[in-house]
Fold:
Amino acid sequence: MASDSSKGQKMWGGRFAAQPSDIMQSINASIDVDKRMVREDIAGSRAHADMLAEQDIISEADNEAIQGGLDQIVDEVEAGTFPYRVELEDIHMNVEARLKEIIGEPAGRLHTARSRNDQVVTDFRLWTRGALTEARRSLKALQREMVKRAGEHTETVMPGFTHLQTAQPVTLGHHLLAYVEMMERDRTRMDDCARRLNESPLGSAALAGTGFTIDRDATAEALGFYRPMANSLDAVSARDFALEALSALSIAATHLSRLAEEIVLWTSAQFAFAKLSDAWSTGSSIMPQKRNPDAAELIRAKASLITGQFAALQGAVKALPLAYAKDLQDDKQLTFAAFDTFSLCAASMAGMMETITFNRENMRAAAAKGFSTATDLADWLVRELKMPFRDAHHVTGSLVAKAEAKGCDLPELSLEEMQEVEPRLTNDVFSVLTVEASAMSRQSYGGTSPVRVAEQVEQWTQRLG
Ligand code: ARG
Structure:
């Protein structure tokens, strides 16, 4: 191939008299993107060549030459000296051309019973499998930080919101563990995806399989796949593994974005629930007082980039007839970018969570605002006076209106004032009106009470190792 490429001829150039235009080359080449799969490409070639020799399709001597040449290419890649050439289009032809330069003729036998169509998707499945492992790892690191913070705040009371209106007091540990639960589902979604994608397309050749007596089980096993894919048309054209990975990333990033939004709110002067460390805050060039939560804001924005990458790939695939079409080349830049963005977001969130500090006093004070223990009062009426909950709800509503008219919180009403609404109320009712009592009382499984949260922290600590 050395001589071919020095003459500027394409690897597929046999039937062409003229060279492609420069612009054609620009739109067609993918090497700048797919060079990231060089290790996967070499692993696929090694497995393929070993199998070809084992099946007597190429000689043992050719296989040895191929493996030796690939060793050298690995060294060049690691040393940063591998010559990536745009005129060779993609990583597959770059590796093969370099192999030809190094070992000569045997390199030309490597592509027996193989096509770039099964080759590229083999590489891409291997790459995505590795990237999912990394994404799961980065989420786990974040979960560990969240669980640590939750353990420090099993008893820290904060306002729980619905509609961003004060609802009931909750504990901060409980709030943080809600995200840990979401992230765990995100990780299992990635697990599922990694399991489903782990079948080998190699040996499907261009689309129809091959007439050579290849052993697809052997290559599948060598590459750590569970089994060869059963339909060659499906194998070369399916990209649902990438769609599934991007959809799992998009959901996980959406969770990071929700948490990012809470950080933005909590670190504002108006909430003042939390403070980011200097390492995770930025200043303003004009307003000296500012500590901006830029990383959280960027996570919020980047989550939609990932969702966009998922949508873009789905758009590229949805109207493609079987089997391979070049549209599928652009799957990789979308997928690589989504994984890069995700790992940056997860690492940033872990960094913020490692060093964020929470203001217990401000959270507690905010929890007491907005009649947050009104439900506890209604529950008291149900429990102590055997009132139907609907009636208790009504009585409590009247008490809230009374406090509102007086401009005070519920516990600040006197017993006499309360008894004007419900004469059977006693002093005992005040014991349920503090935010601590409220949070403490919610001991149902999954509830916000410090005892339940401490149990969950314990379980998560064990589980995450
Ligand atoms: N660079 C191509 C891709 O990423 C490799 C497969 C090319 N196959 C072909 N028949 N042109 O999809």
In short: Residues 24-112 form a domain with the Fumarase C; Chain B, domain 1 fold (CATH 1.10.275.10). The chain has 19 helices and six strands. Residues 30, 34, 90, 116-117, 120, 324, 326, 328-329 surround arginine (CB under 6 Å). Strands lie at 157-162, 165-171, 199-200, 227-228, 274-275, 357-358.
